[in-house]
């Protein structure tokens, strides 16, 4: 800082005095500014133990592992599936060969997770309107929710409640104790409202509610959804929907039963015609009309109509697992603390109705994160000198189903959760937007030396400073913070496994190279991976881990999570 003053034109002594005063002012002010942006000097990653260890991570190794994990034989690694279980055994085998300690249940690498669901029993379902009976599978199908209810009928339009938009499906009506009939496109938002703006409309469950939740809150005993005629005409899609709904939805049993849901009947033409016979609006109008304000206003159906629903279900349990391993640190005391690595090793299975390739290989999502963890675990285990703290590697199942594995580990950790000082989450780090790519679906892919970094500064100023210092001292990737905002419309901070660690007070960093045209498509294959960039990002994450693990004190959490994330 150059301090300009008329004294500069004076004597030499006064010039020196002015300069001294200027320096003093800077020194006095520096600590105050430094509190908001502390400097950090990366030291551990400059030393020989790390430099030797990181060189064990290589392109051939990553390619070899990914070729197995994302092979067609893994059948897309859906949760649960034999492909997912085979992948889990492969990871465990490689960990054992590399000398990584098991950290799952009973001395194994597997943290067992029992999945539970209710599915339609062989007896099926029955519905009737007065003396009229309807044929299950032809006139209607149902959700797998046990029920034996009856009641009068109320038409609820789209079924939404959105306070800020003055949308209230039951304004002037009381659906308590009744069966609510909704327009066939009831899952769609009312016209003029987008899903991206929903987070700005207040708190879910208070300021806005989807049709099923609002019907339940208002005291309805069941829901009937009118299946649009166009949808009824697509028999294959309709049968696929029926199979999915009546087969029930799995969920981890120990995470608690999902909120009690209402039985739902999906009505085809004959049932819809019977429901709206002699009403002020006929079935054809409702079956052909869309949502978004074009459907008639809600009203109560004739009081003499009584609708009965009987649904019988059976319980099914299916085993699955997280995969967990530990490499101990070198400090006798600090090795009881951990830096956690996380990636999800599941994907989305197959798409039988697709033309041509039907397997969703998930090479990038999240085969890339899966094998990055494998490579780092192997490199660390083989290192003769390690950082002070231990590393815990967690391969999460069920991310695609709703972040199951990470929620399960955060609630039932295999090490004390308070001993985890930071979590590094890796989800899709294998792709690059190449020069000349004009595909609009690739517009947000990161560049050749670029990676999106999310959350590094959100909870811990120190962790954010460390992350940048390590990058500057090592491979100098371009860290892009485009999505590092909980209010970003893409909401990536909420969409991957790190969120459950953050909710436990653990500072996180999420690494991601961007969504692309192959996202959740059969074309997400090994051939599309930029392995040179993939290796570089993996090494950079490993460097960040090493620096954190070698700190004298754990990164300080000095910021709270956004209210929505808690």
Plain-language structure description:
It is a single chain. This protein is α/β, with parallel strands linked by helices and 566 residues long. The chain has two domains: 291 residues, 3-Layer(aba) Sandwich (Aminopeptidase); 175 residues, no CATH class. It is built from 15 helices and 21 strands. α13 packs across α15.
Strand element count: 21
- Computed Rg: 29 Å
The separation of the N and C termini measures 43 Å
Quaternary organisation of the protein chains = single chain
CATH architecture designation of the largest domain = 3-Layer(aba) Sandwich
Number of domains: 2
Poorly predicted runs are 1-36
Strand pairing plus helix content: what structural class? alpha/beta
* CATH topology term of the largest domain: Aminopeptidase
Give a quick precis of the structure:
The protein is α/β, with parallel strands linked by helices.
Topology (SSEs and partners):
Blueprint: H1 12-34, H2 48-54, H3 59-69, H4 82-98, E1 101-102, E2 110-129, E3 132-133, E4 140-142, E5 147-151, E6 153-155, E7 161-162, E8 167-168, E9 179-182, E10 208-209, H5 211-217, E11 222-226, H6 229-233, H7 235-246, E12 251-252, E13 264-267, H8 269-275, H9 283-288, E14 299-300, E15 307-327, E16 338-344, H10 363-381, E17 390-396, H11 399-402, H12 404-411, E18 420-426, E19 450-454, H13 461-473, E20 478-480, H14 498-502, E21 508-512, H15 531-549
Parallel strand pairs: 6-9, 9-11, 11-13, 16-17, 16-18, 18-21, 19-20
Antiparallel strand pairs: 1-15, 2-3, 2-12, 2-15, 4-13, 5-15, 6-14, 7-8, 7-10, 15-17, 19-21
Helix pairs in contact: 3-10, 4-10, 10-15, 13-15
């Amino acid at each position: 800082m150059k301090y300009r003053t008329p004294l500069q034109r004076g004597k030499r002594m006064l010039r020196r005095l002015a300069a001294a005063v200027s320096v003093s002012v800077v020194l006095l002010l520096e600590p105050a500014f430094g509190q908001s942006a502390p400097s950090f000097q990366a030291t551990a990653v400059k030393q020989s133990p790390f430099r030797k260890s990181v060189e064990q991570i290589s392109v051939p190794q990553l390619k070899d592992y990914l070729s197995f994990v994302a092979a067609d034989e893994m059948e897309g690694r859906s949760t649960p599936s034999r492909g997912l279980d085979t992948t889990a055994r492969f990871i465990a085998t490689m960990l054992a060969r590399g000398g990584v300690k098991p950290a799952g249940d009973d001395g194994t690498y597997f943290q067992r997770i029992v999945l539970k669901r209710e599915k339609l029993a062989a007896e099926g379902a029955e519905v009737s309107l007065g003396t009229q009976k309807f044929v299950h599978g032809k006139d209607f199908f149902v959700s797998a929710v046990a029920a034996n209810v009856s009641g009068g009928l109320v038409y609820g339009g789209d079924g939404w409640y959105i306070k800020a938009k003055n949308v209230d499906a039951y304004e002037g009506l009381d659906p308590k104790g009744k069966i609510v009939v909704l327009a066939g496109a009831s899952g769609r938002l009312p016209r003029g409202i987008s899903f991206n703006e929903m987070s700005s409309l207040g708190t879910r469950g208070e300021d806005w509610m989807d049709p099923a939740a609002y019907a339940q809150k208002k005291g309805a005993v069941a829901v009937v959804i009118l299946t649009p005629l166009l949808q009824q005409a697509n028999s294959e899609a309709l049968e696929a929907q029926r199979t999915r709904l009546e087969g029930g939805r799995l969920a981890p049993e120990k995470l608690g039963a999902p909120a009690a849901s209402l039985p739902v009947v999906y009505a085809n033409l004959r049932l819809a015609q019977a429901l709206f016979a002699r009403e002020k609006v006929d079935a054809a109008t409702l079956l052909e009309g869309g949502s978004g304000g074009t459907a008639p206003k809600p009203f109560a159906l004739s009081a003499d109509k009584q609708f009965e629903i009987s649904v019988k279900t059976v319980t099914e349990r299916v085993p699955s697992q997280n995969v967990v391993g530990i490499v101990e640190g070198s400090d006798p005391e600090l090795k009881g603390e951990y830096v956690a690595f996380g990636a999800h090793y599941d994907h989305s299975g197959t798409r039988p109705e697709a033309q041509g390739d039907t397997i969703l290989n998930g090479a990038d999502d999240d085969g890339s994160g899966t094998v990055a963890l494998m490579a780092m675990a192997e490199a660390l285990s083989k290192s003769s000198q390690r950082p002070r703290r231990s590393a815990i590697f967690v391969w999460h199942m069920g991310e695609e189903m709703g972040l199951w594995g990470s929620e399960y580990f955060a609630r039932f950790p295999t090490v004390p959760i308070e001993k985890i000082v930071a979590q590094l989450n890796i989800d899709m780090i294998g792709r690059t937007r190449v020069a000349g790519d004009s595909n609009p679906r690739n517009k947000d892919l990161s560049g050749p030396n670029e990676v999106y970094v999310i959350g590094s500064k959100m909870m811990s100023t120190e962790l954010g400073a460390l992350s940048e210092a390590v990058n500057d001292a090592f491979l100098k990737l371009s860290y892009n913070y485009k999505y590092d905002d909980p209010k970003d419309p893409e909401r990536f901070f909420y969409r991957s496994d790190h969120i459950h660690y953050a909710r436990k007070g653990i500072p996180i960093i999420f690494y991601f190279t961007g969504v692309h045209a192959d996202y959740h498509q059969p074309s997400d294959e090994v051939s599309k991976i930029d392995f040179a960039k993939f290796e570089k990002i993996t090494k950079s994450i490993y460097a960040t881990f090493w620096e954190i693990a070698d700190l004298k004190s754990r990164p300080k959490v000095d910021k709270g999570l956004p209210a929505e994330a808690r």
